[in-house]
Design a protein that fits this description.
The protein is mainly α. It has 2 helices and 2 strands; from the N terminus they run ββαα. It has a two-stranded antiparallel ribbon with strand order 1-2. Belongs to the bZIP family.
Length: 122
């Protein structure tokens, strides 16, 4: 070995930085700690990715459910619009022959006990 350096790959050759630009040899315990930390980080990352995927799946399910509900509500709006149109036409036709609307006594501003009775056929 030249200049008193340890052989490559030996425990003393590997070192870690510590505050103040000093280096110290990395022990087997440090290696074990590093391996455990990396494993712990890998597991945490897997958990995080799984949680993220589950959240995305849940949002997608909610989206699908809301789309179905939206479709049902739009159909209901269409049906109710058609019913309104039909009932408005029926009301228009009824207004043409309604005895209550045709009776002139209904437009007199005098208080009467029963305005319907005076206009109904006897």
């Amino acid at each position: 070995m030249s200049q008193g350096l340890p052989a490559a790959g030996s425990v003393l050759h590997r070192s870690i930085s510590v505050p103040g630009n000093q280096t110290r040899p990395q022990s087997p315990e440090d290696d074990d700690r590093k391996v455990r930390r990396r494993e712990k980080n890998r597991v945490a990352a897997q958990r995080s990715r799984k949680k993220q995927t589950q959240k995305a799946d849940k949002l997608h399910e909610e989206y699908e459910s809301l789309e179905q509900e939206n479709t049902v509500l739009r159909r209901e709006i269409g049906k109710l619009t058609e019913e309104l149109k039909h009932l408005s036409e029926a009301l228009k036709e009824h207004e043409k022959v309604c005895p209550l609307l045709l009776c002139p006594l209904n437009f007199v501003p005098l208080p009467r006990p029963d305005p319907v009775a005076g206009c109904l056929p006897r």
